Every structure is written in structure tokens, then in C-alpha cells.
Amino acid sequence: MAKTQALGLEPIERLEEKVRLLVGLLDKLRSDQARLIEENRHLRSQTEELRDQLGAAESASGELTALRQERDAVRARVAEILDHLEGLEV
Questions:
Q1: Phi and psi based region of residue 29 (left: phi greater than 0; alpha: psi -120 to 50; beta: remaining)
Q2: Chain centroid, CA 6 distance in Å
Q3: Is the pTM of this model over 0.90?
Q4: How many angstroms separate the CA atoms of 10 and 57, rounded?
Q5: Domain presence at residue 37
Q6: Residue 1: which domain range?
């Protein structure tokens, strides 16, 4: 009879061990999921900051181009004025 009881409990003990392993795996997966959710939130935040910086850089680049064009126009105008002044002195 003891042998029958021992044989009858063995499958239950194996099942219990599998359940423990599954619970441990579930706990690990939940922990990993929480970590990945936080990492995802952080990366989204960084992405938004980088987009803002890119927009500011593109704006500054456009402004710089406009200022360079204005500078070139002023140089050309000053050169014309100097040429005109040189013509008056002769």
C-alpha cells in the first residue's frame, strides 16, 4: 500500500514542481515587462527631446542662411558705394 501511495504522489510532486517553475517564470516575465515599459517610456521621452532639438537646429540653420545672404547683400552694396566714392575722388 505504501508503494502505491508513493507512486500516486510522484506525479503530483512533479506537477507541483512544474507549477513552481511556471510561477517563477511568470514573476520574471512580469518584472521584465515592467522594466521594458519603463525603458520604453524613457526612450520615448528622449526621442521627443531629440525631435525638439532637431527642430531648433533646423530653425537656426535657416536663420543662419538668411543672415549669410543678408551679409553678402550688404557687402555687395558697400562695394558699390566704395566704387562710387573712388570714382568721385578721381
A1: alpha
A2: 58
A3: no
A4: 69
A5: yes
A6: 1-63
Q: pLDDT at position 1, please? A: 46
- Per DSSP, the three-state class of 90 is coil
Full DSSP string of 16-67:
HHHHHHHHHHHHHHHHHHHHHHHHHHHHHHHHHHHHHHHHHHHHHHHHHHHH
Q: 73 pLDDT band (50/70/90 cuts)?
A: very high
Question: Residue 14 and residue 44: Cα distance in Å, rounded?
Answer: 44
Residue 72 lies in a domain: no
Whether residue 10 lies inside any domain: the answer is: yes
How many structural domains compose the chain? 1
Once rounded to an integer, what is the mean pLDDT over residues 19-30?
98
Distance (Å, rounded) from C-alpha 50 to C-alpha 55? 9
Q: What would the mean pLDDT of 48-76 be, rounded to a whole number?
A: 95
Domain annotation covers residue 46: yes
